[in-house]
Amino acid sequence: MAPSPQAVLLILLPLISAYVVPDSAPVAVVPRHPLVTPSPTLQDAASRTVRRRGLVDDIKGDVNSILSALGSNIPSYVASGVPNFFQDFPTGDKVQSSLGIDDDQLKALPTSVLNVPSYGNWTDQGWSLRFRGNVYKQPNTNESKLNDLANIFLIDTSVEKLPPDQADQARNLTAEIFVVQQSNQNVTFELKPAPTAGASGEQGGGGAVTPNGGSQQVKFPFPTTGEGDFDAFVPIESNGLADGNKTSNIQRLNVYTQGSTIGNATSYLVPPTGLTIISDIDDILRITKIYQPKEGLLNSFARPFIQWKNMPDIYANWSRSIPDFHFHYLTTTPEQITRNYMDFIYKTYPGGSFDTRPLNFSDVAATLSIRKYLLTKIFETYPKRKFILVADTSNSDVMKDYPQMATDFPGQVQCIFLRNTSATDDGDKFPYDTSGFKNLDKNSYMFFKVPDDLTNLDIQKGQCLNTTIQQNVTFSYQGLPFGLSKKAASPSLKANAMMALVVAGLVAFFI
């Protein structure tokens, strides 16, 4: 039976009455010299301060109104803030317990590696390549059990009711979630020149070249973490690679994991200067509809990934027309379920490096902080490069983090492009906050509706605004229900605006 609006309200009240305290005024960051980046301490990124606000009496009516627009048949894990699909995935002992696997059975399973396509930088010591991924074992789970587990993540349907191809994908993705991460493992890689990567429309794919050398074996210097992760920059030998201070070319290397047939990826050696695009994926490169939980889950869990309109043509044109353009794809989707993302990108868009959410960024506060953490990491790795940032307005962290990067790293953000999902999809009922853009140059960003709005912009020279596209940026909450957007600055409506923002967060965290 679907929960009543009153029941959903009770679930929502704790979240509605709290919000994250805004960060203090930004301090200008002096770009540091690119050095070998140490192994990250991920745990620190989850710390946030939360304080209570007395908003409940003002927003009860708005909760029911917004939820009724979504439909009330939403599981409690969606209404409580962040769907289980993207939060608190089972790991280690929990997976063993849920699948009934003993230690001997686990030991007999082959070891697998998720190897994330990454990037390398040029330092005083030569090239340094980031190795990033996870070591795990995948239990042999029967179809009946996989059906039961997959049904946890679906709304108003079940695996048994899906078309056969979608049921197979749902089971495959569920199997990728219910894996047992392997801690304290040593990993060794083989590097080889990469002939192709991606589908950019140019020979070889992506804005990169195949180097004349680079073949070598690299032993990762640290054992895997308690979650099975490995992530660090490691110096590599030149062995015929072009020096980063003598070339503008981005060099492609295939990275093979020893002892694992599926632990392979393509990584990129990126020179100190040039142009990098950092692109989100959901609802900007593919149709996800993350703001509609039922559709978002089906589009992520069961249905084939579908490109958003003609966005591949825009990226292919940039890849062909902008020399040495580095493509980097950043999604805050947990790493266990990103193989489909990588496969989709490499078949549809220019090849490039990736960032995903590590396993120990798992709760709501950590999810909010991971995008900024990953953005800061790549900005600090390339203090002399300029960046194009692309995403959509349904991400609350994007709306805060993208303009913040322009403040924290002055001169490095060349353009910000944001698809206005609430203006292009009437299924997006959630507001977005444009206040972070107030102090930015109005010619440095653009909110757009369709990919063609980006055509004919000379982003290489910093042309970010298509003057034929009306902006209507109020530097406040926009896309609010009940006509509140036009009056968002009114003090009497702040509680309602905050309510709408909080409810938006329920689904904005989803990506």
DSSP helix fraction: 25-40%
The shape is: globular
Uncertain segments are: 1-85, 487-511
The percent range for strand residues is 15-25%
Quote the distance from N terminus to C terminus: 27 Å
What is the tally of beta strands? 19
Determine the mean pLDDT. Answer: 79
Write the layout of secondary structure elements.
Blueprint (H helix, E strand, L loop, with lengths): L4 H12 L1 E3 L29 E3 L3 H15 L5 H4 L13 H7 L3 H6 L2 E5 L3 E5 L2 E12 L5 H9 L12 H14 L2 E2 L6 E6 L22 E4 L9 E7 L15 E7 L6 E6 L5 E5 L13 H9 L9 H11 L3 E10 L4 H10 L4 E5 L6 H18 L4 E7 L3 H13 L4 E7 L1 H4 L7 E2 L11 E4 L28 E2 L15 H15 L3
Parallel strand pairs: 4-11, 12-13, 12-15, 13-14, 15-16, 16-18
Antiparallel strand pairs: 1-2, 3-5, 4-5, 5-6, 5-9, 7-8, 7-10, 10-11, 17-19
Helix pairs in contact: 1-2, 2-14, 6-7, 11-12
